[in-house]
Amino acid sequence: MATKLQNLALEIAHYNNFEKYIPNIDQYCKETLRHILNLGGSQVSTLFEHAVAQEGGHQVVSLDKGDLERNGVYSDAKLSSVRTSSYGTVYSAPIRDTQNKVGTIRAQIYERKQNKFYYFAIPFTAHQIVPKTSNIDIPFEMDGTPKRIPSRPVKMNWWKYEVKTFQDMANVH
């Protein structure tokens, strides 16, 4: 799938955050990588899978049930950026296409207003409740601060699966 020009800055922000974890990244010409990235010619989500695999000791398998596998256990690597929806009344990060995933969802979330990254390791027991027609939505306040305490009753407070670092996200069992 091609990168939409309107999403290129978000893709580059994600890439910049995990680049150092990409296997053998130091062996490649930085100028060439930057040029390809700025053209939208790199599949950033696939590079993210490889970065998580490198850090967490996983194998990249790219199956419907998961992108990663470690010791027979599958997990999935997801990138998401916080966006406004519901006619400007909701600010959240959607984690899509989780219905076939059978393990932990490892997510890197980019919040653009405060230029911060957040990491999540959401176990299957938590995300299996999401209907096939829905997404996991990580809520934020309109100013970009995390909305860790729900303002109304929710089925699941996704913030309880936040981890501190990229390394923690990649290594959670």
Number of helices: 5
Helix content: 10-25%
Radius of gyration: 16 Å
Give a quick account of the main beta sheet: strands, pairing sense, barrel closure: 6 strands, mixed
Q: Order of strands across the biggest sheet?
A: 1-2-3-6-7-9
| Approximate shape | globular
Tell how many strands the DSSP assignment holds. 9
What is the string of SSEs from the N terminus onward? HHHEEEEEEEHEEH
**What share of the residues does DSSP label as strand, in percent?**
25-35%
Q: Unreliable stretches, pLDDT < 50, 5 or more residues?
A: none
What is the average per-residue confidence, as pLDDT, rounded to a whole number? Answer: 94
Tally of separate domains: 1
Q: Structural class, judged by helices and strands? A: alpha+beta
**Could you tell me how far the N terminus lies from the C terminus, measured between alpha carbons in angstroms?**
30 Å
